[in-house]
Design brief:
The protein is built from 13 helices and nine strands. The chain is α/β, with parallel strands linked by helices and about 325 residues long. β6 and β7 form a beta hairpin.
């Protein structure tokens, strides 16, 4: 635990006997901080890591907008950790009975924490996720419910579903909708260096116990006009796709199977993983149920000449 370098905001109020929730905040904006400050659940703290050493934030912004909850601003590292290792740092230094990840410039509904904890306890789950709304850069609601408007399998799962093997390929909940039991969340450290913290903790929780889903929006997820599909960001050619997506995905799976060597769906996962690396159209088609979109895209890549790849990317980014 760090013992120096914190900036504290101490609230002289009775936080009740409720279990403490540690909110891990890696990026911030004014509306986001206000939404944390207005949570109906009383016993929360905000742990903050400013992962931008070359341009550190002004701590006064937290004093200005986090007026109802205590916060801790951790000393900066001398280099950028990246978002997953930044959250790992925060998680290592947390002690809350519950953990909530807070990233991007999103807005939480006032009852997000209260509702999430209620479902965690009712379902005896290790992790809970929720539906979300989509807003644009001007805070206009673009989608009232991702859940209701999506037909993707990773948006349509239910409490108690066995999602671990599917989540290893496609993340079934983005970080800021996740709330976890604290001791369990800390047991998932270290995170794999090859994937996001959200994909990692969901796969772990779905393997070790029960994961739950709240079928109502509890957050607003901001989608900017320049957003690009996650699997295609930074990809310009076939070699980019292998180097930046397929190989890191494979390494993350290796890390997961090192942690869970007896994972019950190990053979399926390895078979699909090998099919991706080896461009095996037959095997990609056979195991497409693990991630239909990835299987379809990988098959298209295998069949598309290199000079046609930019055109394929254009289509995928438009409709993905």
């Amino acid at each position: 635990m760090f013992t120096t370098g914190f900036v504290y905001n101490i609230i002289d109020t009775d936080l009740s006997d409720a279990y403490k929730v540690s909110i891990l905040l890696s990026i911030y904006l004014k509306l986001q901080l206000q939404s944390l400050n207005n949570q109906t659940y009383q016993n929360i703290e905000v742990l903050i890591n400013d992962d931008c050493p070359e341009d550190p934030c002004d701590p006064s912004i937290f004093k200005t907008y986090l007026t109802k909850v205590p916060f801790k601003l951790f000393p900066q590292d001398n280099h950028n950790l990246g978002y997953h290792k930044s959250f790992e740092k925060l998680l290592k230094n947390s002690d809350g009975e519950y953990i909530a990840f807070c990233d991007q410039d999103d807005i939480w509904f006032p009852n997000k924490i209260e509702k999430s904890i209620s479902v965690l306890e009712k379902e005896n789950a290790l992790l809970v996720a929720s539906d979300r709304q989509i807003i644009d850069e001007n805070n206009n609601i673009v989608k009232e419910s991702v859940r209701k408007e999506s037909k993707k399998i990773w948006e349509r799962w239910h409490t108690g579903d066995d999602i671990a093997k599917y989540n290893l390929f496609t993340t079934f909940a983005i970080g800021m909708v996740i709330v976890m039991k604290g001791d369990y969340a800390r047991s998932t450290i270290p995170f794999s260096s090859y994937t996001g913290h959200d994909k990692w903790v969901i796969s772990c929780a779905a393997t070790d116990g029960k994961v739950a889903f709240i079928e109502e929006p509890l957050v607003q997820y901001r989608r900017h006009s320049n957003n690009v599909s996650g699997i295609l960001k930074g990809i310009n050619c076939k070699q980019d796709y292998m180097r930046k997506r397929v190989i890191p995905d494979s390494e993350a799976i290796n890390d997961f199977l090192t942690k869970y060597p007896n994972f019950k769906d190990k053979q399926e996962v390895l078979a699909f993983n090998d099919a991706r690396k080896n461009h095996s159209i037959t095997q990609l088609f056979h195991y497409r149920y693990l991630s239909p979109d990835i299987a379809a895209f990988d098959i298209m890549i295998s069949l598309t000449p290199s000079f046609m790849f930019p055109f394929l990317l254009k289509i995928a980014r438009k409709y993905g």
